[in-house]
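Each record in this resource describes a single protein on a pair of labelled lines. With that in mind, the following record should read easily:

===
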Amino acid sequence: MQTLTPGKTPTHIIRMVGPDDKQDDGSDTSADDNQGCGGSQDTLRRSGRARRPPVEYWLSVRVVAHKAPTTYVQAVQGQESAKWQIALDEEMKAIRQNKTWRLTNRPASRRVLKGKWAYKIKNEVHKNENNKTRHRARLCFMGNRQINGLDFNETFAPAAKVTTILCILAMTAASGWKLHQMDVKTAFLNGDLDKEVSMEQPDGYVHPTYPDKVWRLFQALYGLKHAPKMLYAKLDDFLNSQGFDNIDPDACLYLLMHDGEIIIVLVYVDDTLLVASSLAAIYEIKDALHKRFEMKDLGEAKVILGLNIRRDQALGTLKLAEGKYAGQVLEKFGMAECNPIRTQLEVGLQLVKADESDDALPYREAVGSLMYMMVGTRPDLAFAIGKLSRFVSCYGKEHWAAIKRVLRYVKGLMEKGLDFDKNSSCVLQGFSDADWAGDHETQHCTTGSTLILGGATVSWGS
């Protein structure tokens, strides 16, 4: 039996080695390790299996390889400090131009919240279709500390429905209308606040003479809970003053018919789609927007909500696809090199709820990623995703195998999407069907419906 010496560790006890610890190969053995062992020397038994780090399925896909800083100190003291300083100065210039704040004494009866700089490196597609890396800094209000009823009453983000966008694109292809896109620069800085809000002076821009004073905000900042609502209210007032009518089913769809011209404006937060029957009408509404807001003209629409737009006006075709996003999803879940397959699910597949979810499997993330693709341009995924989404709270290996099969199907049809054609019928057609108690576990029926306009599906569900 081995006797223990105070302060010494017996060699037969194996210590768990962490990823940052140095591994002992046993070549350098201290004499102290053998004290009290009667001259015998035990050796550590180590596994010869190669160690591989776990696959981190939960990591998001990075659009760019550069890593943005997370704090102000990292931004101004890092390798790209000059670029980040330019981005910070541009943001402050925009804030000052909009007369967003005024330096005042600290209020005694109201809370003063803090702001935070947010940094992002973006890949932007310009009119010549060249990609350009841009460093962007945003001064954000820490809205997570706002209290409902005290600091704000209601929130609202102007976002057009996907069905509305698809219907407008179908009509654009059929009628040969012009399709352009604009972006509101520093969009949330345009909203006028309806309540008094105070904020601490931001890092790097504290007034040297009055460091104890605070900002009294008159216009919204990014991060404010009600900033999107204030932006929409201002944009709505402007479009109404220009003669546009808000179409009732969708609060973000505006229509103007004047002198035989048709102009349509679709709003999705700070992105706007402009549709008109002529280029002259497009330029007219662009000039009006430029005079009221600081806008970025993106020319003919190329991408909207991650949907790539490919249009051939000579042939009268317009195609929507999500090939780039599909590639990102496959890369995210380690299926970029998988073998494609022709069908989403096995014929007659019946899944049952697992007793306990296997949290090591990124099942929920995979269903959510594929659901976004399905909602945008892939009605062929509606049945499979509708079926697999029933098990996001109780899934196992058989469910993960089923979602991997869907990913293999996506691999074979990455550029599949919606094709609108001017030669197709512009009469809205609807179809629906249902099985009979197809779910063996609940005896529920599965229904499916689709609406077709301009040769492609504009609304679907299962």
User: Anything to note?
Assistant: The first strand starts at residue 101 and ends at 104. Residues 321-461 form one domain. The chain is about 25% helix and 25% strand. Residues 81-97 form the longest helix (17 residues).
